[in-house]
């Protein structure tokens, strides 16, 4: 850390921190002492609610509207609120969407939308954060992939491609940034109970549950504790890895 950076707030950025897994990560990192900058795209009240919860427990957090698939919005966020203003300890690329359909019927728009948010959005944030982390000579980048990025899943070719892409991106960038003391890892959750999975019908949920050796769905907190560990000193010799948090599920 440079001498002039020492007095700056120690920040963790969590994209898509307004709900689900991103909310749990934001709460956990705040508990671990970081000032949390969480982003959202449409649910301002939820994002502010997460900040209020953190503030009420004596922590520090701010919410920002940033569509990660929009390069200008990502660039402005880092320029206006991060670069030179805080010490950026960790970036968690969590924002993600699904738009499922069988490949034969998938519209190009559904393909592009999912790749743009999940993969290109992750790339935009990494590019901006790594400029700052290189100067700091320190940083952690944690990308949220998925079990289906490792295994594939019918009806989710766009989502699986985006999540497998995140794994390749993680491994390449880990190699590029290791000499600068920036550690880059991915977390691959299995089936976690959030808005994203709430929509699935009961029969599909039963099929998934039957494949989970630990016989329960994961919680956002299960993922958050792994992310917090990867951000901690205890994980300072780990880079370029994909950590599965899936109760033993392999589709
Ligand atoms: P979720 O409950 O649907 O929340 C998605 C989050 O992403 C929200 O905060 C949302 O913001 C934000 N977001 C969506 N589009 C965005 C954009 N264009 N720019 C910025 N933020 C955007 O999802 P989740 O289940 O917590 O999943 C979080 C991550 O874990 C995703 O990457 C997902 O693919 C991954 N994952 C989830 C599961 C699971 O079982 N749930 C399993 C494996 C991996 P708003 O609230 O403003 O809409």
Order of helices and strands: EHEHEHEHEHHEHHHE
N-C termini distance: 42 Å
Average pLDDT metric: 96
**Structural class computed from helices and strand pairing:** alpha/beta
Bound molecules: NADP nicotinamide-adenine-dinucleotide phosphate
Global outline: globular
In the predicted model, the low-confidence regions spanning at least 5 consecutive residues are: none
What percent strand? 15-25%
Helix content: 40-55%
Roughly how many Å is the radius of gyration?
A: 17 Å
Please give the number of β-strands.
7
Q: Main β-sheet, in a few words?
A: 7 strands, parallel
The helix count comes to 9
Give a verbal description of the structure:
This protein is 47% helix and 17% strand. It is α/β, with parallel strands linked by helices and 251 residues long. It has a seven-stranded parallel beta sheet with strand order 3-2-1-4-5-6-7, sandwiched between helices. It starts with 9 loop residues before the first strand and ends in a 6-residue tail after the last strand. The protein binds NADP nicotinamide-adenine-dinucleotide phosphate. Residues 15-16, 18-22, 39-43, 46, 66-69, 94-97, 117, 121, 144, 146, 189, 191-192, 194-197 line the site of NADP nicotinamide-adenine-dinucleotide phosphate. NADP nicotinamide-adenine-dinucleotide phosphate binds next to helix 1, strand 2, helix 4 and helix 7.
């Amino acid at each position: 850390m440079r001498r002039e950076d020492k007095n700056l707030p120690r920040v963790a950025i969590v994209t898509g921190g307004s709900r689900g897994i991103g909310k749990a990560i934001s709460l956990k990192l705040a508990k671990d002492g970081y000032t949390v900058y969480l982003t959202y795209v449409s649910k301002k009240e939820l994002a502010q609610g997460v900040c209020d919860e953190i503030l009420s427990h004596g922590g520090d957090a701010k919410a920002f509207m940033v569509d990660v698939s929009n390069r200008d919005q990502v660039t402005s966020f880092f320029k206006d609120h991060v670069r030179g203003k805080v010490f950026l300890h960790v970036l968690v690329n969590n924002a993600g969407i699904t738009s499922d359909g069988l490949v034969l019927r998938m519209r190009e728009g559904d393909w592009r939308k999912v790749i743009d948010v999940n993969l290109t959005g992750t790339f935009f944030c990494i590019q901006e954060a790594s400029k700052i982390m290189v100067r700091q000579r320190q940083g952690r980048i944690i990308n949220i992939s998925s079990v289906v990025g490792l295994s594939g899943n019918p009806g989710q070719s766009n989502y699986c491609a985006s999540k497998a892409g995140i794994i390749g991106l993680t491994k390449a960038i880990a190699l590029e940034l290791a000499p600068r003391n920036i550690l880059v890892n991915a977390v691959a959750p299995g089936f976690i109970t959030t808005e994203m999975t709430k929509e699935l019908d009961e029969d599909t949920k039963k099929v998934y549950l039957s494949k989970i050796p630990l016989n329960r769905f994961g919680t956002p907190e299960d993922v958050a504790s792994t992310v917090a560990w990867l951000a901690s000193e205890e994980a300072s010799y780990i880079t370029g890895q994909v950590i599965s948090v899936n109760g033993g599920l392999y589709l």
